[in-house]
Design a protein that fits this description.
Layout: E1 2-3, H1 10-17, H2 21-27, E2 29-33, H3 35-43, E3 47-52, E4 64-66, H4 69-75, E5 84-89, E6 99-103, H5 109-121, E7 126-129, H6 139-145, E8 153-156, H7 159-168, E9 172-176, E10 192-196, H8 205-209, E11 213-215, H9 228-239
Helix pairs in contact: 5-6, 5-9
């Protein structure tokens, strides 16, 4: 295990740069914080380097670096830095699953994290991010997924073009409409692509017009709307297996 003590060390400088989206995209790497996320990442073989403050070794085949708290504070986005941070390879795209969720303009990291966790729970194991959706490697998104990010298939696409591809593959495109939408329980199909929109603006009109079916969630009239993470979770549960 190598000891690094200086904030000016080249590795520390490069690790710190991973806090920037552009640098993450260029280098195909990202940071994770804390033991729980690390253990999930290790299961999926995406960890390149491990940085610790207590000399603990998690995998003898992966380079470890022991650092003082000042370096961990520099790397961490948390008020109280963790005892371990890791550098991971960005996730590779996998094959499309039968249930897919498409995200149009989701901006809140917590909402995206919630949707990812629910997508895995309800077997929507492919998540397609529109070009205007928050970066999945944002540190708040990663924390909100509770490690489930390593167990789903994540793609980034132009949604309009991708929906046409899905139609050719015989997916039923399902959107939402609070007035015209039907009960999601009536929309059982083997291959479903659910699309949900931005927290404030909802689903883009062009995307809405490409939907094969529209659904809604029945609820008490005193409740005007649901958080997009909650709504997406309910719909995936109803549309899932």
């Amino acid at each position: 295990m190598e000891n690094i003590v200086s904030l000016d060390n080249k590795k520390v400088i490069n690790w710190t740069k991973l806090q920037d989206k552009k640098y993450r995209d260029q280098n195909l790497k990202f940071l994770i914080e804390g033991e729980h996320l690390l253990l999930e990442a290790l299961k999926n073989h995406v960890v390149e380097e491990i940085i610790v403050t207590d000399e603990k070794v998690y995998d003898e085949n992966i380079p470890h670096y022991n650092v003082p708290e000042k370096i961990m504070k520099k790397l961490s986005s948390l008020k109280t830095p963790p005892k371990v941070i890791a550098i991971c390879q960005k996730l590779e795209e996998g094959l499309l699953t039968e249930k897919i969720i498409l995200l149009d303009g989701i901006q809140n990291p917590g909402n995206l994290g919630t949707i990812i966790r629910s997508a895995l729970a309800f077997n929507f194991k492919t998540i397609v991010l529109g070009n205007n959706t928050v970066d999945i490697y944002n540190e708040k998104v990663i924390r909100a997924t509770e490690g489930m990010i390593f167990n789903v298939n994540v793609l980034k696409r132009n949604l309009k073009d991708f929906i046409y591809e899905l139609k050719q593959k015989e997916y039923v495109i399902v959107g939402t409409d609070v007035k015209k939408g039907i009960d999601p329980k009536k929309t059982k199909n083997t291959k479903i692509a659910l699309i949900v929109g931005n927290e404030g603006q909802g689903l883009d009109n062009e995307l809405n017009n490409l939907c094969d079916k529209l659904v809604n969630i029945k609820m008490n009239s005193a409740c005007e709307s649901l958080n997009v993470g909650v709504a997406a979770s309910i719909l995936m549960y109803e549309l899932g297996d």
